[in-house]
Amino acid sequence: xxxxxxxxxxxxxxxxxxxxxxxxxxxxxxxxxxxxxxxxxxxxxxxxxxxxxxxxxxxxxxxxxxxxxxxxxxxxxxxxxxxxxxxxxxxxxxxxxxxxxxxxxxxxxxxxxxxxxxxxxxxxxxxxxxxxxxxxxxxxxxxxxxxxxxxxxxxxxxxxxxxxxxxxxxxxxxxxxxxxxxxxxxxxxxxxxxxxxxxxxxxxxxxxxxxxxxxxxxxxxxxxxxxxxxxxxxxxxxxxxxxxxxxxxxxxxxxxxxxxxxxxxxxxxxxxxxxxxxxxxxxxxxxxxxxxxxxxxxxxxxxxxxxxxxxxxxxxxxxxxxxxxxxxxxxxxxxxxxxxxxxxxxxxxxxxxxxxxxxxxxxxxxxxxxxxxxxxxxxxxxxxxxxxxxxxxxxxxxxxxxxxxxxxxxxxxxxxxxxxxxxxxxxxxxxxxxxxxxxxxxxxxxxxxxxxxxxxxxxxxxxxxxxxxxxxxxxxxx
Amino acid sequence: xxxxxxxxxxxxxxxxxxxxxxxxxxxxxxxxxxxxxxxxxxxxxxxxxxxxxxxxxxxxxxxxxxxxxxxxxxxxxxxxxxxxxxxxxxxxxxxxxxxxxxxx
Amino acid sequence: xxxxxxxxxxxxxxxxxxxxxxxxxxxxxxxxxxxxxxxxxxxxxxxxxxxxxxxxxxxxxxxxxxxxxxxxxxxxxxxxxxxxxxxxxxxxxxxxxxxxxxxxxxxxxxxxxxxxxxxxxxxxxxxxxxxxxxxxxxxxxxxxxxxxxxxxxxxxxxxxxxxxxxxxxxxxxxxxxxxxxxxxxxxxxxxxxxxxxxxxxxxxxxxxxxxxxxxxxxxxxxxxxxxxxxxxxxxxxxxxxxxxxxxxxxxxxxxxxxxxxxxxxxxxxxxxxxxxxxxxxxxxxxxxxxxxxxxxxxxxxxxxxxxxxxxxxxxxxxxxxxxxxxxxxxxxxxxxxxxxxxxxxxxxxxxxxxxxxxxxxxxxxxxxxxxxxxxxxxxxxxxxxxxxxxxxxxxxxxxxxxxxxxxxxxxxxxxxxxxxxxxxxxxxxxxxxxxxxxxxxxxxxxxxxxxxxxxxxxxxxxxxxxxxxxxxxxxxxxxxxxxxxxxxxxxxxxxxxxxxxxxxxxxxxxxxxxxxxxxxxxxxxxxxxx
Lengths: 478, 104, 530
Prior knowledge:
Chain A is an alpha+beta fold.
């Protein structure tokens, strides 16, 4: 058998997380809304209505272009793409063909083996989403709630070489979208949708062969599986003397099977022309610079920096940069702490992530701000509380919103650092344990742990361990 | 210069494209008229074009924001819009299925 | 004088002063409609009136109940000493192409015969807010596609009140006829290639096409989005200024509406034309028309009486101190129609893609499948003119074409606009304030004379269409009658957003001809009833 190379290009539709639709003031998010309740004359294509562009959709589209290292178009223009379908009320979709919001660009994939793989972007434009149709009891029905939701359509060059690479692309794109805050990128809710173009060629060849298009690969697993499966089918077909035809395939995630939707007989004629109801979208140099400046440090850059600057392990850096708010939280705490960043990292990796999981909140949403976390860590460092109290304080601060110091004060959680009162308590304990004292004095020094434990039990853990040990050593010497 | 004419085959294609189903007599009238109009249109092909022409449709001075602020404003009579659909039921617009095997 | 002969401004002032009740004005308007209009246009087109050929047939439907409520509201405001608005108690008819909530908006097409708009057009809302009484919807060419009104699916279509055997022009033919026949002093029309000005000229009334962007298009069922303009039809220039005043201004629902401040147009009328530079162009002396029988372009000169009226108007204005600049070249005027064939057809074809029998309007019962629903709905719902325009637009915008016609036409459109820019350039060779031209090459033609020849019909717009390409304001004002007693219109064109200038020039001309003999002649449709 010959060796084959798999050629994959992905076409993604990214739903921007604006408050309103792209051309009308209806709410963009209809997740739990009844069908056709989030509609108006504009997004249902009533005669006489006009679109009115949402400024936020432009901002978010441009920010995404910046994140993809694309050139932000200073004058992007909308076009009409015509076709008939019941989920498209105007009989045309407002999109961008000739002058899209972004030109060029790429995404650098950080592969598990440490390699960086550059995936080039072929096109990136703003457009409106269509509504949905569904079949129920044999009846086709139309719901226009989704119609007019802002999308960025982004298509890669055929730069991906396997289902795994495609899955990496989608996963890292999803992370990026959330990171820069332009999309919720929840694939189950259709915020990020994907079609894949797949072809094969003999290793060493530079030609592009006939490709098939797989529709609806709407999870990362699906992308990996569907592409792998389709590539295998094509290879087997070619090996057995067959020829790949230009099909459109449908991926069924439930059965894990591909089925043929239709053969493509030449491109449909969409009669594109410039949308005359919308003005060109003008972005001044200053606006473009402002958009670029607002672009946050991207996840991989931040990951690398965490390792270098804070000496975190690769694993810790990855976890802490898995979400932008989490990494911001960490850095804020590190800045306030001014000692070993690793200490903060440990708290983040264990107790803070548990706290977020338990409360269902993101780092940004926590009542417990980085300053409070740092305060708790410092209380432990200074011997004012013990580590266990520190951990319980996290929860208490989150629940009450009070400062750690206040809670320590109110609940007398502070360690007993008063040598006189502690000495008295220890004398009482030693008096009640003559056998152990004798044994210790007789050379069984390992009993020290037992004595400390007794003191801790008697003081319910509030005794300063260092001081306890000092007093014990002194009293047991006699 | 030989003027472009719409052939009956090309005509059938655009009839399909715009979803019409025409009677022969209507076709004859429409095709004839289209070709007369196309004759007029082709006058444009002979014009020496000036290359520094501003292609913007209209000069519309604006002082306010051209794009709209992202503020939700619900349309109150959404249900009424759906009830205007010739076939509707329980807030859904009903349509027949596409003919099998045919892509629109 | 009958109430229906009052101007809109007179009505509003009398109503505001308590001298005339809005309700009485409404009654007078409705009575006039009953007397002159005859059968309203309908889909079955059954005439019940033996005199039907002599009637105006401007209307498709009345919105009497709404108008009654509006009249009562105006009268109550006046009784309370409140400001009842610039158009207090003025009956207005609306070209049936504007959305008006919960009334049937047909676009004179079977396709929308039952379409109740779920919202109101911005221009109509502004009229209502100013105290106007919306009495009803007037006829038009189907989806505004025509220059004679004959293509309306609602028959009988409007006749020309001056001679009911002639067309009123189009597409705002119902508007022009309703105003000329004194049914309403004002009518709201639309102008895409001349659709306000040509019927206004044919019917002897004033028609103003404002600059693109001066009045919101929201709620105007689009023909060609980059050309469409709502605008007033009225019997005198002052009323056109008044109606423009009410409707002009930015609209948050229309991205192409201009946010420029709206000047006081009525005040502008007070100024004379001394020192105003008014141009005449040889390129408006005739129309260049491709004769498809011979394949040759023929120059058909403008009807002699219209040419004479234009020159007479120039002379009138010169006597009042205007400077007349002759021989202003407008070399790209002749390309106005070919460019229009491309731009308007492509946009129209696109705009009508939404008419599919799914969401509203006409639909066919028992469609076999989705494709069948689309095809039969669109085939049965559209008349021949929309079909022709949809097909032409689809042909010209098909991606398979070698030539990108839309881009080519947009380029020539830019050259047409440049002709005007050079003429109006303050430091240029001509430094015009306004260009004076005939509005139409001929006076109103007979019914069925041109209908069916879509090319000849389109060339009737050659004097008006360039203004739409350039987005400029233009007004047509009556300038006499020809030997068949059919009205002649002349047109003033000015630079972007200088509606004040065209209104001033037209007003000065109008005032200087108030005593002209032709102004005493009444339209034929009115002679018999009034």
